[in-house]
Amino acid sequence: MNDGRHTEYDICIVGGGVSGLAAAWYAQRFAAEAEAPCRVCVLEASGRWGGKLLTDEIEADGAGRFIVEGGPDSFLAQKPWVGELAREIGLGDALLGTNDTGRSVFIWVKDRPVPLPQGLLLIAPSRLLPFMSSPLFSIRGRLRAGLDLILPRRTDESDESVADFVGRRMGPEAVDRLAEPLLAGIYSAEPEQMSLLATFPRFRAMEQKHRSLIRAMVRTRIEIAKRRAANPGRKPPATFVSFTEGVAALPRRLVERVDADGALHTRLDAMAPTETGWRLRLSDGRTVTCKAVVLAVMADAAAGLLRPVSTKAAAALERIRFVSSANVSMAWPVSALREPPEGFGILFPRTAGSRINAVTYSSNKFRGRAPDGWVLVRTFLGGSRNPEVFEEDDPTLERFSIEEMQKLLGTDQPPLFTKLNRWAHSNPQYDVGHLDVMAEAQAGLPEGLWLAGGSYGGIGVPDCIRQGKEAAQQAVARALGRPAAVDAADRRSPVGSA
Ligand SMILES: Cc1cc2nc3c(=O)[nH]c(=O)nc-3n(C[C@H](O)[C@H](O)[C@H](O)COP(=O)(O)OP(=O)(O)OC[C@H]3O[C@@H](n4cnc5c(N)ncnc54)[C@H](O)[C@@H]3O)c2cc1C
Predict the structure, then answer these.
(1) 137, 224, 304, 476: most buried by Cβ count inside 10 Å?
(2) What is the C-alpha to C-alpha distance for residues 396 and 379, in angstroms, rounded to an integer?
(3) How many CA atoms lie within 13 A of 235 on its CB side?
(4) Does residue 231 register a pLDDT over 80?
(5) Which CATH topology does 55-79+86-102+322-429 take?
């Protein structure tokens, strides 16, 4: 990124999180492919690039180096956009899959950790035997889940909550012991409010096509097994990936490689349309004109900027709800623990009454996160389920985390360090009707302006990159006065878009 601060650009990208930085990279690439000059600037209100992608290196005396994630720690590998971008910017060799051994994730049921049954893909089983014999469910719960095989499909195409869908197909125990802890732990969300169509549209499509979710999942698994049999030497890919030096390697490399003017500590304060594009008022005192704008900020910030320009788009975006979450990373020597923790972590259903929603064993999930002989863990608190916990002060959140982890790990030693990250009003919620909200917002958007980011068309980092890429394609076409080619390949969206 360059230091230039000019007053005329072709494209202004607002927000220097992963969506905005991806948009800047692809704007540069599409303009180069069109063999046309295109001046791009990226405006970032804070003093740091990367937005929620935040990695700290903690050097602890006598222990060594820990790689501590403050926001996301991994990306769904099935979605191709992180891998594609990483390879384009020369970061392909730094991609790191989750550890092959000890992949299990546990759910806390009746005061003990129970592994998720093998073959479970988010909320649906692809293997019947492990599911039907799992102690995660009561016999009654398993029999109810089995009814999915004979229940009719829903014909109504309207949205419904994830809880309604899972409850309808697999029964209430699958909601309480599977969907609820998974959504609270992964998305800081609650299944009763989360939109099925905006987050897991594949599951509805499976029901439409195969009627039974279990049948659909089993068929998918058989197809995957056939593909693997055709390529016997190939190792099954990891479900999640990160980077050897942590997730912040991605924005760091983008900032090095993007040839655009980048301005930190520079907030977009107001915007107004002109005959040829946009006039932007920035917090550094500049007034900038440009032909196209990509708003790569969260929906609440976008709504504030859009209100004077399009009340319709602003009103729609204001309906997107945000919740707050916190996480605490801590390290212990293995020698101080009853035994080394197993698996990637534990999810706590709300019925467990725990003060933490989930814990990730970061040093088990990815190699190189902690020095040998040390365990790095991260607890998750607050979210949609426990908003009052987020209101506690920092020492209390740390104390909750330490106490819960000491019980789980069997130690009375204090951790070597604690690292707390708070994310106030930072977790967008894709509530039922989210797709309608977005359709309204898009319909109200003025010419020459695009939205990209975690509040809109997919919460996960892969979808943020895809949205940045799509917005860049449109913005470059407008700035150069050429029609935008729709990249059909980017419509691929394996299981879920959240
Ligand atoms: C705790 C946590 C854990 C997560 N875990 C995962 C995970 O494991 N895997 C995964 O895929 N996803 C995960 N996510 C989601 C993912 O991190 C986010 O959806 C994604 O990083 C959002 O990127 P973004 O660029 O759209 O927005 P942001 O990262 O929010 O960036 C927006 C940027 O815009 C700036 N900005 C705002 N207003 C203005 C303005 N007026 N002018 C200029 N700049 C402005 C902000 O300062 C910010 O830097 C997690 C999120 C959180 C909070």
Answers:
(1) 476
(2) 13
(3) 6
(4) no
(5) Polyamine Oxidase; Chain A, domain 2 (3.90.660)
CA distances to 2, 171, 280 from 292, in Å: 20, 49, 11
User: What's the half-sphere exposure (Cβ side, CA atoms, 13 Å) at 259?
Assistant: 8
Which residues form ligand 1's pocket by a CB distance below 6 Å?
A: 14-20, 43-46, 51-53, 71-75, 267-268, 296-298, 301, 325, 327, 423, 426-427, 453-454, 459-461, 464
Provide the CATH number for the domain formed by 11-51+248-320+431-491 in this structure: 3.50.50.60
> With bands split at pLDDT 50, 70 and 90, how would you rate the model's confidence at 225?
confident
Measured CA to CA, the distance from residue 406 to residue 404 in angstroms comes to 6
Q: Whose CA is nearest to atom 36 of ligand 1?
A: 15
Q: Given the structure tokens 């492990």, which residue do they identify?
A: 130
User: What is the DSSP secondary structure assignment for residue 351, as one 8-state letter?
Assistant: G
Q: What is the DSSP string of 425-467?
A: EEEEE-BTTHHHHHHHHHHHPPTTEEE-STTTS-SSHHHHHHH
Beta-strand pair 449-451/292-295: parallel
pTM: 0.95
CB 263 within 8 Å of CB 5: yes
